[in-house]
Amino acid sequence: MTTRAGKRKKKRLYLVLTSMTILVLAVGLVMTALEDSISLFLDPSDLAERDIPDGQRIRLGGLVVDGSFNKADDGLTYHFDITDGAETVSVIYKGALPDLFREGQGVVVEGETRNVGPFVATEVLAKHDENYMPKEVIESLKERGVYQETNEEENI
Amino acid sequence: MHKFANPARFLRISKMITPWCFILSALSLCVGLYWGLFIAPEDYQMGSAYRIIFVHVPSSYMSMFCYGFMAVASAVGIIWKHPLADQSARAAAPIGAVFTALALFTGSLWGKPMWGTYWIWDARLTAELVLLFLYFGYMAVWEAIDDRAKAARIAAIVALVGAVNIPIIKFSVDWWNTLHQPASIMKSGGASIHPDMLWPLLISILAFNLYFVTVLLWRIQSLIVRRQIRGLQMRIAEERQNHG
Known about the structure:
The structure holds 2 protein chains of 2 kinds.
Chain A: H1 3-33, H2 35-38, H3 44-49, E1 57-64, E2 70-71, E3 77-83, E4 88-94, E5 106-112, E6 119-126, H4 135-143, H5 152-155
Parallel strand pairs in A: 4-6
Antiparallel strand pairs in A: 1-3, 1-5, 2-3, 3-4, 5-6
Chain B: H1 7-39, H2 53-80, H3 83-114, H4 123-144, H5 148-162, H6 165-175, H7 195-243
Helix pairs in contact in B: 1-7, 2-3, 2-5, 2-7, 3-4, 3-7, 4-5, 4-6
């Protein structure tokens, strides 16, 4: 290998490295700036803190509060509360619920903001957490009394 | 490194390796999928529906791994000008595109009953869709430009620019709130999948990896041979002109 070719290779190496660094920085800045619009949903705390005008379409995410879920007499309308640990929002929804929907589960609800009354959701999506466990294991853990519901913070 | 960069030697050695890779990948795929789909226990929340992870997780993982390979090969191609590096990157692209499509498709099938929707524009899903388009763009560059050296250079730049998307896909679930669940295997504090489900999943991931190596070697071989044929055709045409 001649030194000239070696020099050119080194030059190309530095060119690739510097352009990649600049690119990563630029994309990083853009994504930090767009953080709010990339995130899928707001927490109930965000909703309480921010002054969001009425009639705006938003997604709200949190855990379904234990014992808050009930079905109206028509059998189609559901009431439940969602919480992020700090704030709680009541939700009313008419429609089909996904398989994973249950109390204690993370959910994402979509609807328009209103200043009075519960949050009216037009769509309810259930989140799955990162835990996979066989039924038998959960049952035996429950029998021995050592089973703990997953940490709320992680679940959101 | 230089030894294997010689296309003739590469052909000889890779032809020896490919059948073994193929056999191993077929075997591990049978073991992984049979174990995962029939023997592994049901999940406590999802029952049998979770079994899609034995296809979904390996294909998602491979969709990113394959792009990483393509980006590294492209960098080697740009800096050291090894034709074999460009050919390797080119050969990997369609395989990666298929893995990406499979990941999106299987995820969507699972999403409808579990989440309640086939598709949502959250960070993870959107970034994975962008990955599919990056593969398409990369392949289109090779088809659109006739000059080989030029095509290789532009395609390599596309591959390198797009590589920024790989960490975005991986960490999207940690950086932003998404509908997609966070990582279950590669995360701090160890995997959060029970070992009875994790083992078949790991075997399935191994199988997908071996399958990738097999098809990749086949495709590189055919690209090299195609190139040799083109060279010969040009020589024949030249000879004819000289004699005629």
